[in-house]
Amino acid sequence: MLTAARARFWRDGYAATSVQDLTDATGLGTQSLYGAFGNKHDLFIRILDDYCTNQYAGLEAAITADPSPWHGLTSAVTFEDDGRLDLPPQGCLLANSAAALSTQDEQVRTRSCQIYSETLALFARQIAQAQQSGEIDTGIDPEQTARALIAVMQGIEFLHKSGIGEDELHLAKAAALQLIERSVAR
After folding, report:
1. Whose CA is closest to 68, among 56, 76, 58?
2. Are 63 and 153 in contact (CB under 8 A)?
3. pLDDT at residue 81, as a whole number
4. Which helix (H) or strand (E) holds 180?
5. What is the model's pLDDT at position 157?
6. What's the rounded Cα separation, in Å, for the pair 6 and 12?
7. Stretch 106-116: mean pLDDT, rounded?
8. Residue ranges making up the domain that contains 70
């Protein structure tokens, strides 16, 4: 039920998804939907929270499972490594929601800022581990580098969603990775 509602919000966006769309997608009646979730906004926030929790857990697991802290991190940032961190065609539900709603919805803005902070801390930890293992320069600031990597990751997602084509996307990712590698080289 939540999966069907999430798919509808993800495909159409919050504003374009009506309660009727949600009842059609979930098979619930309007009263059952309201009884279970309160209202459309509460359902959306529940879905967004679940999505963020699952995405962060998956990101952390994928990054930390790699024996190389730096490779695990760059694979995540560029959505590489055999699709382990696959980027769906519709992009990230959180990024889409933040772009559309964060200026008018405090709960979306708060969740966006929270996941940014968590991702920043995760990336900074990975960078520090990569420094300790001798993979990258120990003179770079892990937190500043983490901020740059998040910006690169979001830029790659934007390019993916823009429809530039796989060849150009691959070139953009390779160029970003080359600049990153040069800036952190020992």
Report:
1. 76
2. no
3. 63
4. helix 166-184
5. 87
6. 10
7. 95
8. 41-184
